[in-house]
Protein: GMP synthase subunit A
Organism: Shewanella morhuae
Amino acid sequence: MIPVYIVQQITLQQHGELHDSLDQRWNDFLLKADILPVLLPNNPDLVDEMLRCNLAEAAIFTGGGEYHNSKSDTRSEVERIIMRWSEIHGYPLVGVCRGMQSMMLYKGSKLKLCEGQVSNTQNITFFGERICVNSFHNFECTAINAEFDIVGTSDDGVVKAVTGKVLPWFGLMWHPERLCPHRVEDYNLFKKYVSRRI
């Protein structure tokens, strides 16, 4: 299996508890994609220490929730740490939904409100082929940095997937773990992109 750092979302529980959490559907998806998850806490200092231990040479931003770009948002800070680590070492990074938005914002893109992008099924064009995925986002990425190729779009022109021209980054705006059944093609995509090197 391929060890991969996993960035989780933050959820508010009873009594004011903040939990780092991962949708359990990711477990089955990652297992079938031959990926061994190394879960990262949403604590920048701990993440710095974990990166020094060299537990993995790839990362996935698992998405979930809206993007919040504030200094008090520890998840966003962890994502920025991982993006810098990926840039320095040329390590692969895959961003799902909010994860792709984080990557694009880091590279100078913008987010704007969009409509019609919340659906259990959506047909998109991906690498020139028509595929059926899902869509759960209220913001779209615009002004995509020239460092990236747009490889997926919805019928109304919303960017659905990007790949780095040099950086081994891949972003997608659907949630493969939520598809039932999973698409075998998504297992292969993740396996391919967490193994990609500069």
